[in-house]
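Troubleshooting: if your tokenizer reports a length mismatch, compare against these two reference records.
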Amino acid sequence: MKRLALRLGGALALSLAACHPAPPKGPAVRPPDFLRGYVGQQRVLRFQADRTRLVVRRKDPAQLPGACDAAVDVRSARLEKGSPFLVLETLGTPGVERARSRCKTVPATITLNLTGFGADTPAQVTARLDQLLPTPDGYLRAYGVAFDLPPAGEPAVAASNETTAPDEERRLGRRVTSWPRKLFWVDPIYRDPRHIVRHEGEVEFEAVVGADGRVYRPRIVTSLEKEHVSAIQRVLPMWRFEPARAGKDAVPARLASRLVFRIY
């Protein structure tokens, strides 16, 4: 009887295993290569950033109706039923000299879904994504401002006209013929987790603008809470400047500037 029971038990186990095969082993499913590069990038969602869910069809025009743009961090990207699906965390509202984003409200999280692109190549899909979700440089190009300076890294020395600056920086400052000019900026948003504080005001900061037109070593001058400082410092790498010039040469320079900070 014991042998019979063992045989029956083994047969039953084999039968159950056949009905419910073990899950395949291997790494977790990742987004395809052409989407993976977007994750972790800071970009600008154009036109309809006041919506929590944005669905863009292939037949939609290149410029969607709407004038609400938002700086975002791409939290995730995947294919959902063959269509790109991105989750975006909003960081603030962008600005350029020729335009301002006009938003009544900006949700904390936005989903962006492209549909009808299944027959297109990855290059065609990313071209549409980059149009809807450009980098700061791409956003400037959309407004006719050419910015093609590649990142050069944090400079060791920066021109300064402050009397308390090191001699080397003041010597470089005397050669400067034009100081940095703001081209693209982001006014940051902070969402109060307690939903108590609502505030909008200007914040002063100091930084170095590299010869590549990017912000380095920012320091918030206005007295703020730590989480507010973090929200502001998070968007400053997106800013773009026409760098300082010593004649025709671009040079790093120290900068004092302001931004609008909003707490919701």
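Reference record two:
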Amino acid sequence: MDTNFNNLFSIAGKVALVTGGSRGIGEMIASGFVASGAKVYISSRKADVCEATAQRISQTCGGTCIALPADLSRMDGVESLAARLAKLEPKLDILVNNAGAAWGAPIEQFPEVGWDKVMDTNVKGVFFLTQKLLPLLRQAAAGPSPARVINIGSIDGIKSATFDSFSYGASKAAVHHLTRFLAAQLTKERILFNAIAPGPYPTWMLSTGVGHGGETQGVDWASVTQRNPSGRVGTPQDIAGLAIFLSSRAGEYVVGQTIASDGGAVAAS
């Protein structure tokens, strides 16, 4: 039996791509990866915001974060991102499919555009970006450590949400099941898939949903989480820590799972 536990949670030297990395949970994960010694590329739709976040992460976390903006709700954006990354890196150790969209409206007024935008970004974009990046993931998997893909779902894909976000919840449930499908297909190639289902985190998306207009600073988050057993929102350390675990030797035998990071919200529902 191998009892060497050195570097059990290390991701130092790995190359990662975090989509939707310019803010919110994507920025939290990218920051944690950079602070842990990984070289990280982040992608988001707005080029100026993506570049500013990459510079901020590099400076704050003392490592390398590079912006590769793309609109992942469109196939040309997916293909462009994969092609540009392939010109920069021979392999990709970690892919975090975090880019997402949401739409809220009463059921009687819920528009087709709100359904299609969410499904195209949250499900179609996840599948086809993974597909286009398979050559880089396979190159990483040929090395000493398996490649990892972490799909960011949501507790709204596990339990019913309190918001009128019909396409969002359905899309995240699809992401969770897609993760299992991909794990069944590609684990034998040493490409390991898991999903994280975040609960309340202090993000633009949650802020808009609870009526704070996207503001994340100066918000009474405690009032938002009154019914959460933990009584708080998640922190960057919470979500980045879980992503680092899944990307490290410590998480190598966890495959095809959807792990809630929610302070107990699902357990209490």
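Descriptive notes for reference record two:
- The domain at 15-261 is CATH 3.40.50.720 (Rossmann fold).
- The longest helix spans residues 112-132.
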